[in-house]
Amino acid sequence: MPSLEEAKKKVEELVVAKGFGNTPDEIANKLLFAFIELGEAGDSWKKGRPTEETIEELIDVIFYVLDASRLISPHANLDDVFEKKWAKNMNRPHRYGEGFRGNPAT
Ligand SMILES: [Mg+2]
C-alpha cells in the first residue's frame, strides 16, 4: 500500500505519461475535477451502484487532490501533514465542530 507521498508520485507519473495539465495554472481545474469526482461518488452511492464503483470514484477524488497538492506545494510532505493534522484532530473535543447540531460536548 503506497503512502500519500508515494501515491502523489504515482499520480504525477500518470499525469506526465498521459499528457494531462502539469502546471500551477491547472490547480483550479484539478480542484474542480476533485469536486466533480466527489459528485460522481455521491451519485453512484445514491443510485445503489456496486460499492466497487463508488470506491473507484472516491479514488478519482484522491487522485485529483494529490495532483492539486503537488502543484500547490511540491515540497509539502503529505505523510507528515497527515500525521500532524490527525494528531490535531485527535486532540479536539468529542464530536468537535458539531455544535450546530445541538451537541452539548462542543
Ligand atoms: Mg470518475
Task: Characterise this structure.
By secondary structure, the chain is mainly alpha-helical. It is 66% helix and 0% strand. It contains 4 helices and no strands. The protein has helices spanning 4-18, 27-46, 51-72, 78-90. The protein is globular.
Topology (elements, then pairings):
Layout: H1 4-18, H2 27-46, H3 51-72, H4 78-90
Helix pairs in contact: 1-3, 2-3
Bound molecules: magnesium ion.
Residues 37, 40, 57, 60 line the site of magnesium ion.
Name a few traits of the molecule.
single chain; 106 residues; mainly alpha; Helix Hairpins; 66% helix; 0% strand; binds magnesium ion
- Give helix % range: 55-70%
How would the global form be characterised? globular
Low-confidence stretches: none
- The helix count comes to 4
**CATH architecture annotation:** Orthogonal Bundle
Radius of gyration: 17 Å
What fold name stands as the CATH topology? Helix Hairpins
Distance between the termini: 36 Å
Largest sheet geometry: none
SSE pattern: HHHH
The secondary structure category is mainly alpha
CATH top level is Mainly Alpha
The averaged pLDDT comes out at: 95
Number of strands: 0
The fraction of residues in strands falls at under 5%
Bound molecules: magnesium ion
Overall tally of domains: 1
